[in-house]
Each structure stands twice: as structure tokens, then as C-alpha cells.
Design brief:
Elements (H helix, E strand, L loop, with lengths): L4 H20 L3 H8 L4 H7 L7 H10 L6 H11 L3 E3 H4 L4 H7 L1 H6 L2 E6 L10 H15 L5 H11 L9 E7 H5 L5 H15 L4 E6 L14 E4 L3 E5 L3 E5 L2 H16 L4 H15 L1
Parallel strand pairs: 2-3, 3-4
Antiparallel strand pairs: 1-7, 2-5, 5-6, 6-7
Helix pairs in contact: 1-5, 2-3, 4-5, 7-10, 9-10, 12-14
Length: about 280
């Protein structure tokens, strides 16, 4: 999704509401009259120029006999303006603040599902690996240099792995294991740590082998699912938040497909060990 995502999402919502209106047999003018709106309001919503309020959507659904779609439409509209946040905006005051902002989400989540096609999942990273990752981000996005503080926040966050009451299912593409972040020592230490974390009772670690047939489970952008409430997607330029139930189900399906072609247990450890040997 590009920087035009918000406008695209507004237009998609408007198109969906237009279809609901047409299916009901109402003209835009008739719907506006029933709702007590200026006749141009329906047009502005349907063309993506205006994001409807919760009340607008409930009125629209009621008059168009689409009450069963109300909550899904409301969730979609609420998510639009907050769904796409540029990394530069999130990190303009430094990386520490961006790390701290995520803490409440991690504390209240019970079931984490993570897919990584870029790097080792953040909760499973060593301090040295995280330092290398954040230094790259700092140079790329020209953020203030508060790497040590940001790393400390990230390491503190990992206490959730052993705090009880949380489950972690992680899927990692095998090529991530062979992508040297930092230097060889950093990477070998990270892979050894990944084996250790993968053995925790609360953790399910799957590795997607290179060369596995991809009938389904096509490689996609990295994402994390927080219970069934929210998905955070990592894009090159921005952070995408998904809360719309229909899109959440798409990520659930994708995660399940990727999980089906992953290997676990001793097979996963073997792939990690092979990566360690290749780096050494």
C-alpha cells in the first residue's frame, strides 16, 4: 500500500456505500432526504471526499436495509485516518518514543501471531541485533540518535515472553536466517538466541524453507497480529494498522497458509543451525 492509501481507502468505503445504496433502490437524493442531510453529502461520501461518522454509517445502513453490515462499515471508517502512518512521522522525535508507544499494545495482547520476511521478529531479537537494525533505520530515516535508549525499551518489552498468559506464534522465512544484519558475530549470536527462544513453552516457531512449493502462502509483507483486534503491517515507508474485520480475516487466512508450509521443532532448529554454519 502506497502513500495514497488513505484516499484509496476512503474511495473504497465510498464505493461500498454506493453499492449498498443502489442495492436498496434509493437514489442519493432520496437517501439524503430520509437522513435529513444536504443532498451533496451522499455524493461527497461516495466519492471519498468525506469520511462518514459512526452516526452517518448507522443512518445509511438503516435506510438502505443493510443493518447487518453496520459494524464492519463502522470499523472500516474509524480505521481510515489512523491506518497509515509514515515512519518518519512516528520516529521524528527519536526511536525510543516509537518503541515506548507500542508497549501498551504488547501488554494487553494475549495471542501474538507474527510473520517476518525481512528480519528476526522483534520480540526474539538480541540487543546486538536490535542495535544493528535500529542503526540502519536511523541512517535511512535520519532520526535522532537515541539507539541505546530504544534498544533498552525493546529488551524490556521482551519480558512479556516469560510473564505468563501470552502465546507467541512466529513464522520466519528461511532467507531471513541467512541475511547478515550487523556482522557475522551479531548474526550467529542472534540465531543461537532464536533457537533458545523457540524452545520456550509459550512460543511456536515455524521456519518457511527456501524452495518450498508456493501454491499458497506466497511471501508477503511482514505483519503482526495482536489477538483478533489489530494487525500491524511493516511497509518500507510506513506503518499500516488494520482493524477492519474483513481485512483481519484475510491476514488470518494468510497466516494459516504460511503456517501450513512451515517446519517446526527439530526441522526448524536444523535450518537455523545450517544458517549458523554457513555464516561461520
Amino acid at each position: 500500500m502506497s502513500s495514497s492509501s488513505v484516499q484509496q481507502a476512503r474511495q473504497a468505503l465510498g464505493q461500498r456505500l454506493r453499492e449498498i445504496r443502489k442495492d436498496s433502490g434509493l437514489t442519493a437524493r432520496a437517501l439524503a432526504a430520509l437522513a435529513g442531510w444536504h443532498e451533496s453529502k451522499c455524493s461527497r461520501i461516495e466519492h471519498g471526499h468525506t469520511v462518514p461518522s459512526d452516526a452517518d454509517i448507522r443512518v445509511w445502513a438503516r435506510h438502505c436495509d443493510a443493518l447487518s453490515q453496520t459494524e464492519d462499515l463502522v470499523a472500516t471508517a474509524r480505521n481510515i485516518d489512523g491506518m497509515y502512518v509514515e515512519w518518519r512521522r512516528m520516529e521524528r522525535a527519536g526511536l525510543k518514543g516509537a518503541q515506548e508507544a507500542a508497549q501498551p499494545l504488547f501488554e494487553r495482547t494475549r495471542n501474538f501471531r507474527m510473520y517476518q520476511s525481512w528480519v528476526i521478529p522483534g520480540l526474539f531479537q538480541t540487543a546486538a541485533y536490535t542495535t544493528a537494525v535500529l542503526n540502519t533505520i536511523k541512517d535511512l530515516r535520519q532520526t535522532p540518535d537515541d539507539i541505546a535508549e530504544a534498544v533498552a525499551v525493546r529488551m524490556e518489552r521482551q519480558n512479556v515472553l516469560r510473564s505468563g498468559g501470552h502465546r507467541f506464534a512466529a513464522l520466519v522465512e528461511e532467507w531471513v536466517l541467512h541475511t547478515v544484519i550487523g556482522d557475522a558475530n551479531t548474526m550467529v549470536g542472534q540465531l543461537g538466541h532464536l533457537i533458545s527462544v523457540g524452545s520456550l513453552p509459550s512460543v511456536s516457531l515455524g521456519i518457511i524453507p527456501m524452495g518450498v512449493p508456493r501454491g499458497s502462502g506466497w511471501p508477503v509483507e511482514s505483519f503482526t497480529m495482536y489477538d483478533d483486534r489489530q494487525v500491524n503491517v511493516e511497509l518500507v515507508s510506513a506503518h499500516l494498522t488494520v482493524t477492519q474485520p474483513r481485512e483481519m480475516r484475510d491476514y488470518t487466512t494468510t497466516f494459516n497458509e504460511l503456517s501450513a508450509i512451515s517446519v517446526y521443532g527439530s526441522a526448524a532448529r536444523s535450518l537455523i543451525t545450517r544458517a549458523i554454519d554457513s555464516i561461520e
